[in-house]
Amino acid sequence: MAQIVGGFVLPHNPGITMVPKQRWSPGKHEAIYGHFAEVGARVKALGADTAIVIGSDHYTCFGPHCIPSCLIAIGDVEMPFEDWLGFDRVAIANNEPLARHILDFGLRGGVDWAFAKAITVDHAIAIPYRLSLADNQDLKVIPIYLNSGISPLLSSRRAFALGDSVRRAIEAWPGDEKVVVLGTGGMSHWVGDEQMGRVNAEFDEDLMALIEANDVEALIALSDDEVEDAAGNGALEMKNFICAMAMTPAAKGRVIGYEAMPELITGLGFAELVV
């Protein structure tokens, strides 16, 4: 039987590879890249052969013609969509049989999945893959996109239910895969409005504490309006964290690190979901 052996929460901010090191506050570049390296080392230590990476589209892969509430990639994957991230486009190996099983299991159970038989993923998947997973050559990746950015949004409760469906699908899979899940996104950040560049470190630290306590119900209880008022529209990407936490319900959170990064317009948090 396949099993989920661990999970992580980490950022996908494109400025991490795009903004020159000279523009970062002293010590921040080394800290952030060190946190990504620690995630990668832990994935290897867990013996994972498949990673489910949960991200949010940024009007890049989808829209305005089609904006799926939730999408799973079941075929060819390459990255990155954006040519300005600072690294070359490459193919990513997908665990297609397991991805198709997760899709079919969810459809039978009431999850209205969209799916992609071929996709070029944006920085939501590409940044964590590049900085934490790319040197793990035998690792396969299943990208999942949740709509946390364009109204009407996927609800936090639905993000949890979707993660729970993925967890049960993996437990029902007869293969022997060892799976890790990565919930990616920014913490506090305001995108495209007059507060862009502001970081609410107090909100972010409270969010990290809830992740450490594995208090997913407290995260779900925060309304979208409350999150946006306190931490900006970009903080709604915490739905990706909720989805990952639903896949690791018995986990104990371990904070890897947090950095408030106005120069990258966001707070960047890293945590392990230790199962």
From TrEMBL:
Q: Which InterPro entries match?
A: Xdiol_dOase_suB
Mind listing the GO molecular function terms for this protein? Answer: ferrous iron binding; oxidoreductase activity, acting on single donors with incorporation of molecular oxygen, incorporation of two atoms of oxygen
SUPFAM superfamilies in the cross-refs: LigB-like (SSF53213)
A Pfam family in this protein?
A: LigB
Q: Which domain of life is it from?
A: Bacteria
**Domain Extradiol ring-cleavage dioxygenase class III enzyme subunit B: start-end pairs:** 8-268
| UniProt feature coiled coil, ranges | none
- Tell me what this protein is called: Extradiol ring-cleavage dioxygenase class III enzyme subunit B domain-containing protein
